[in-house]
Amino acid sequence: MGKFKGRLAFLRDLDALGPTQAWLESVPSEKIAHFAGEARVTNVADLRKVLDEDKRFTLIVSLLHTVRTGVRDDVVTMFCKWMTAIHTKGRDQLETLQEVHRAESERLLGVFGDVLDGVREALIPAEQQTGYESAGAAANAQENRGRAADRGG
């Protein structure tokens, strides 16, 4: 984050020098790039020797504008990378939380299933709790009715 803040401060300083875009609005971008390149290779002493004040001003403003544009691009790129890192970290944390909560939810569903089984067992009479026992109980009841009928009752 230190590099980003440094670039942002540098951009603020460049912006404070003036509206270079407005100063160069009638100059084609190719010319601006050419003038900036010329100013970049010219040292201060040679720049002072340029007799035409308009040309000297154009070279300096073109260089300033080009640097300012590059710094602005750097700031935007750094910001996008920073936001991507934050987004990625947030997505990873979300996936971790979802995994933790998924495991807890599955555990709670298992406990809830056990509770439901216990409630079912408590509500069903003892002889009807299993299919085998209820079939045997029904057969015994029918057998007992048949004996009673044979006895005449």
The end-to-end distance, rounded to whole angstroms, is: 98 Å
Q: Could you list the spans in which at least 5 consecutive residues all have pLDDT below 50?
A: none
In total, the number of strands is 0
Q: What is Rg?
A: 43 Å
State the major sheet.
none
> On the 0-100 scale, what is the average pLDDT?
84
Q: What proportion strand? A: under 5%
Fraction of residues in H or I helices: over 70%
Large-scale geometry: rod-shaped
- Would you list the SSEs in sequence order as H and E? HHHHHH
- Strand-pairing-aware structural class: mainly alpha
Number of helices: 6
Organism: Microbispora triticiradicis
Protein name: Flagellar motor switch protein FliG C-terminal domain-containing protein
Describe the fold and architecture:
Helices cover about 85% and strands about 0% of the residues. The protein has six helices and no strands. Helix 1 packs antiparallel against helix 5. This is Flagellar motor switch protein FliG C-terminal domain-containing protein.
List keywords for this structure.
85% helix; 153 residues; mainly alpha
Would you spell out the secondary-structure blueprint of this structure?
Layout: H1 2-16, H2 20-23, H3 29-41, H4 44-49, H5 53-123, H6 131-151
Helix pairs in contact: 1-5, 3-5
Region (Disordered): 131-153
Biased composition (Basic and acidic residues): 144-153
Protein name: Flagellar motor switch protein FliG C-terminal domain-containing protein
Can you summarize this structure?
This is Flagellar motor switch protein FliG C-terminal domain-containing protein. This protein is mostly helical and 153 residues long.
